[in-house]
Specification:
Elements: H1 13-44, H2 48-71, H3 73-83, E1 85-90, E2 97-98, E3 104-116, H4 124-132, H5 139-146, E4 154-160, H6 162-170, E5 176-185, H7 193-196, H8 208-212, H9 214-218, E6 222-228, E7 234-243, E8 251-253, H10 257-273, E9 278-285, E10 291-297, H11 316-319, H12 329-338, E11 347-350, E12 354-356, E13 359-361, E14 370-373, H13 374-379, H14 383-393, H15 395-404, E15 422-423, H16 431-438, E16 443-444, H17 447-458, E17 462-464, E18 469-472, E19 477-478, E20 483-485, H18 490-506, E21 518-530, E22 533-548, E23 554-563, H19 570-584
Helix pairs in contact: 4-5, 10-19, 12-14, 12-15, 12-18, 14-15, 14-16
């Protein structure tokens, strides 16, 4: 409002005065404001060190952000995924095992593994009761599994039958899940069980050929993953198989399940006839080394391992070395013939007792001093006679023959746990050592080793590597094994075969005779080494032989072990070989 002292129409002097005053007032105000601002700036500006601190903190937060969001983000993501994921391997189908005729010995079949997530189970008692109506355990067993906390993965039953799993699946029980799986089955039950072996629940071979060829048979496991959310609830679409399993490879082995069946029946009958508890048998082809049948009583049933006898998983024909006894006299006789020290008809004076160092050697049965032909010494199994004949050839020559025929070595058979044979170093032999070894004491061999030796005689000096694996059907690959012509002296071989035929015709092995065939073989009633000596009235009874002059060079070994009285196993050999004659159409060849 204008001042009333100055009329509106005045000359403007008042306006100029007002402008001057206003200008002065503004100038003063600017000056005061400027001074006041300078004082405020000087008073409130933060120190430079404080700025650096704030900057450092900002950089730390920024670096931490980069670390979390960029550098370790994949790791934390994986950890988070892992925390909500169940992982377990998917077992591949093992390869099928076939016998030499294409019969299935072991096969993997489809089944279902059933598991649960206890956190999803709404009524454990009810669900357990329902499950028990399908599976074999009682309800309490399943209730404990369904109530297990804080687990989110618990097996209900592994490798269940498809039909049972399907019935359970139809019940749609909360928290119960199903996975496609496979399990091992053995169509022939316990026949050949020791040879074939068994697998564990994860499909890994643990005995026999299942173990020997596990890497080939088992294939490559896959990986199964199932993601779950809060409280274990499955994430939609979160169940998947990361890596599919690769099935194993099939194999065909030399076993003939038909002959194996008859061999096991005959051996068990023979062992039990002597009230024994153990025994072994082997049938091997001297031309190829293929093992047609092999077993050790008691037998293993892969389909009922719970009720199998103790020790039944041990194929002692391969895994246990024992003193061979008189069946070893054939090797000593071969040495004598090879060195031309004696002929089969040569007469040797055999005293009732033979002094050897500080020991006395006698025959199994007491007799007077007698003259025997070399052939009679073998067919009557005289310890004194074979000791004297071998001494004349030279114990060093006997050791040479042992080395030539690889008696002290493992055979190299493709089976786990082959026992090591033992023969004392020749430099350490005493006179009594040579005598003892000549009739099969003081050394150890496996039944397979002795079966291979008789197979070598049948095949005229060819020593083959015993084996099971023949081929891999899926690739068409056939296995090859080393063999060696270790004896070229056909004259010595023929003479020995004639002597072994005499054992069967008129000696200790008459029970092995088969009408129309030239059976050659040798018996043994071997004492059992024990505590540095030999057990009283306990024996290992053996017979080993083959059919001479035929279209087959199959050789067979049989034994009954730890028997309380003397006896013979020639009749068991007879029954097994008679079966082979029928199966393979073995005929005489003159």
């Amino acid at each position: 409002m204008a001042d009333s002292r100055y009329p509106r129409g005045s000359s403007g002097r008042g306006e100029r005065a007002h402008g001057v005053l206003t200008g002065i007032a503004g100038h003063v105000s600017d000056v005061i404001g400027s001074e006041s601002g300078e004082r405020a700036s000087a008073t409130h500006r933060p120190p430079i060190k404080v700025c650096y601190v704030f900057l450092a903190i900002a950089l730390i937060f920024f670096a931490r952000l980069i670390f979390l969001q960029v550098l370790v983000a994949p790791t934390y993501t994986a950890m988070a995924e892992e925390s909500r994921t169940i992982n377990f391997p998917v077992t591949p189908k093992r390869g099928t095992i076939y016998d030499r005729n294409g019969q299935i010995l072991a096969v993997s079949v489809d089944c279902t593994t059933i598991y649960c997530n206890p956190s999803e189970v709404t009524d454990a008692r009810h669900e357990a009761s329902m499950i028990s109506t399908v599976l074999e355990e009682d309800a309490d067993h399943y209730e404990a599994l369904l109530s297990r906390e804080p687990s989110t993965f618990v097996y209900i039953e592994r490798q269940a039958d498809l039909e049972k799993a399907e019935r359970l699946k139809e019940m749609k029980l909360p928290g119960i899940y199903f996975i496609a799986d496979s399990r091992r089955e053995y169509p022939n039950g316990g026949v050949g069980g020791q040879v074939i072996g068994v697998c564990d629940v994860d499909g890994n071979g643990i005995t026999g050929l299942e173990l020997q060829y596990d890497e080939l048979l088992r294939g490559t496991p896959g990986k199964y993953s199932a993601e779950r959310g809060e409280k274990g609830a499955p994430i939609p679409g979160g169940v998947h198989e990361d890596t599919p399993a690769k099935d194993g490879e099939d194999i065909m082995i030399s076993l003939d399940i038909r002959l194996q069946t008859k061999m096991e029946e005959a051996l068990e009958k023979g062992v039990l006839s002597y009230e024994g508890e153990q025994g072994s048998s082997v049938m091997i082809d001297g031309d190829t080394g293929e093992i047609y049948a092999i077993c050790s009583y008691p037998y293993l049933d892969p389909t009922d391992r719970e009720h199998s006898m103790v020790g039944s998983d041990n194929l002692t024909a391969i895994t246990q070395a024992i003193e061979p006894g008189s069946i070893f006299k054939s090797l000593s006789a071969l040495t004598v013939l090879h060195e031309r020290a004696k002929e089969p008809e040569d007469i040797i004076f055999c005293p009732a007792e033979l002094e050897a160092d500080q020991y006395v050697i006698t025959d199994a049965h007491k007799r007077p001093d007698v003259d025997m032909t070399f052939a009679t010494i073998l067919n009557q199994s005289s310890n004194v006679g074979i000791s004297l004949a071998t001494q004349e050839a030279g114990f060093d020559k006997l050791n040479d023959m042992i080395e030539r025929l690889k008696i002290a070595e493992k055979t190299g058979v493709d089976y786990p746990g082959e026992a090591q044979n033992y023969v004392q170093d020749f430099d350490e032999w005493a006179y009594v050592t040579g005598c003892n070894i000549s009739f099969g004491q003081g050394l150890t061999t496996t039944p397979l080793t002795m079966a291979r030796f008789y197979g070598m005689l049948a095949s005229d000096g060819l020593l083959c590597t015993p084996h099971f694996l023949m081929s891999k059907p899926q690739t068409g690959e056939w296995e090859e094994y080393p063999s060696e012509q270790v004896i070229d002296d056909q004259e010595a071989l023929d003479k020995l075969k004639g002597m072994l035929q005499g054992v069967v015709i008129e000696g200790t092995g008459t029970d092995a005779e088969i009408e129309g065939y030239d059976v050659a073989g040798k018996t043994s009633t071997a004492q059992i080494a024990e505590n540095g000596g030999y057990a009283e009235n306990r024996y290992n009874l053996c017979f080993a032989g083959f059919i001479d002059n035929s279209n087959s060079n199959l050789a067979c070994f049989v034994s009954a072990n730890n028997i309380n009285y003397e006896g013979k196993m020639a009749s068991v050999f007879h029954d097994i070989m008679l079966e082979a004659i029928d199966l393979y159409n073995i005929v005489p060849v003159k």
